[in-house]
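Severity: low
Component: inverse-folding endpoint
Summary: output formatting inconsistent between runs
Steps to reproduce: submit the following structure tokens with default settings.
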């Protein structure tokens, strides 16, 4: 593991760090950063070779067609052509965006408020909506071949109702899908998708069941599923629930502090008693950048003032918080009594975030791995720029300050080593296409030079990290819903995900 004790500096075109950090050839980071996965190197080489060949052919034909009296100027022309080629081809040492051409029999729909879950080298995309309709389709995208497939699920249990702004987390071989909504209807049902058989299961749940909601976020810690905040159609929320196996009794006082559920509850991936034989034990394969960041959207719920001095958000008349009662109609699907889970509401200490949705939450993968960062979001009136840290072992909130406020909602936050990559979203006035980096060690915002064809301004998209690349799909810009997939290649920064030994903002455990 690599250690990051100070701010990582930007890289030159040659890939050499600029500044004192990592500038020594004996530095661990200096050597480690060249350990770019072979697959990434091969993809970048293949993508650039075609462009290089085309430019070379153009230059050759130009020289062959020149008059003999101009042969004296050929070296100068070649130099000019080489300089032009260099400007056209993004340096492989710098991060660059690429729009992926759709390949496959089933082109994906334009979606917003969908979920993306990484399973090995494939991305499972479920649900979401366009401007009119919610869906419950399941697409699978192969990150190696860029091939799309639309899958029909199997088994006795039909897929969840069409929904958006739900959450989806991988635990073992199962994707746990919770909540979401469709128009004025909000859900609090839990479904499990077996990623091996593509069969849905609806487990039986008990305990302190969360209220129906969408635009919440979720994460997995020590085999337990956590959900946080969101909106229920009447108001924004800031509560926390954790899902565990039912057979283990937790502390009799659920409101006691310093009572980490991760210690006292049974992990979800553990094979239940009398359960189906195809449920595998948890493999601790957790991805938390796929949190669905949809709560309500500008078309249905928010009207933004074009006033830079205010981040005021006004409700439209369609689904304002207090003008509509929550409806959670039973889907009529019988629960499986052999899959029994229990919800528990968690009581925390410290300064908790105010109620919100459209935020992001990331379980930070570092040497401790017990802290979640909450960033941004909205309560329907204000676009937040706050940053909160939740210690999952102590159930304690801490609000931390960054070097400057950056309001965001409906963005994505993807952990890449000691950084959070914040892409797109809404700042309270307009949609953004920006890529900004939060240095988790210094808690300062940074901007890196990125080449290529970047995604247009949008929110309500999803993004996920796979093999030193960030894949981004879908989204909404206030007028149209997108069906495009982009990939951000980290290039020489591919070493960043390997950095796991660091402390968040110098916080000691």
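Observed output (run 2 of 3):
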């Amino acid at each position: 593991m690599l250690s990051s004790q100070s701010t990582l500096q930007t890289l030159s075109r040659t890939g050499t760090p600029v500044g004192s950090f990592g500038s020594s050839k004996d530095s661990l980071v200096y050597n480690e950063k060249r350990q770019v996965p072979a697959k990434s190197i091969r993809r970048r080489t293949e993508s650039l070779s075609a462009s290089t060949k085309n430019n070379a052919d153009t230059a050759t034909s130009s020289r062959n067609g020149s008059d003999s009296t101009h042969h004296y100027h050929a070296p100068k022309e070649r130099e000019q052509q080489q300089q032009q080629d260099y400007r056209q081809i993004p340096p492989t040492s710098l991060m660059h965006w690429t729009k992926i051409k759709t390949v496959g029999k089933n082109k994906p729909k334009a979606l917003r408020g969908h979920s993306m879950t990484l399973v090995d080298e494939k991305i499972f995309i479920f649900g979401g909506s366009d401007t009119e309709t919610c869906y419950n389709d399941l697409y699978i995208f192969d990150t190696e071949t860029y091939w799309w497939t639309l899958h029909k699920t199997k088994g006795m249990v039909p897929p969840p109702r069409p929904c958006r702004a739900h959450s989806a987390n991988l635990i073992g071989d199962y994707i746990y899908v919770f909540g979401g909504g469709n128009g004025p209807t909000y859900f609090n049902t839990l479904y499990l998708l077996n990623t091996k058989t593509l069969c849905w299961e609806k487990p039986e749940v008990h305990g302190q069941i969360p209220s129906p909601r969408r635009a919440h976020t979720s994460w997995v810690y020590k085999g337990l599923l956590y959900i946080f905040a969101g909106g229920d159609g009447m108001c924004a929320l800031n509560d926390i629930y954790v899902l565990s196996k039912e057979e283990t009794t937790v502390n009799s006082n659920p409101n006691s502090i310093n009572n980490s559920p991760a210690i006292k509850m049974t992990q979800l991936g553990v094979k239940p008693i009398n359960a189906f034989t195809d449920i595998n034990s948890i493999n601790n394969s957790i991805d938390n950048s796929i949190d669905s960041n949809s709560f309500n959207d500008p078309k249905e719920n928010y009207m933004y003032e074009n006033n830079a001095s205010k981040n005021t958000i006004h409700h439209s008349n369609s689904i304002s918080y207090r003008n509509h009662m929550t409806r959670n109609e039973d889907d009529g699907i019988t629960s499986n009594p052999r899959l029994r889970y229990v919800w528990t509401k968690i009581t925390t200490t410290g300064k908790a975030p105010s109620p919100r949705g459209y935020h992001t939450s990331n379980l930070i993968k570092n040497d401790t791995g017990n802290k979640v960062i909450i960033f941004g979001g909205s309560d329907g009136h204000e676009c937040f720029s706050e940053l909160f840290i939740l210690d999952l072992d102590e159930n304690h909130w801490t609000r931390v300050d960054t070097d400057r406020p950056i309001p965001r909602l409906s963005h994505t936050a993807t952990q890449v080593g000691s950084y959070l990559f914040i892409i797109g979203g809404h700042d309270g006035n307009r949609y953004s296409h920006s890529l900004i980096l939060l240095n988790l060690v210094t808690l300062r915002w940074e901007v890196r030079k990125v080449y290529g064809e970047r995604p247009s301004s949008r929110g309500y998209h999803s993004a996920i990290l796979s093999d030193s690349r960030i894949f981004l799909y879908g989204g909404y810009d206030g007028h149209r819903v997108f069906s495009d997939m982009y990939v951000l290649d980290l290039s020489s920064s591919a070493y960043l995900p390997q950095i796991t030994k660091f402390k968040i903002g110098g916080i000691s455990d």
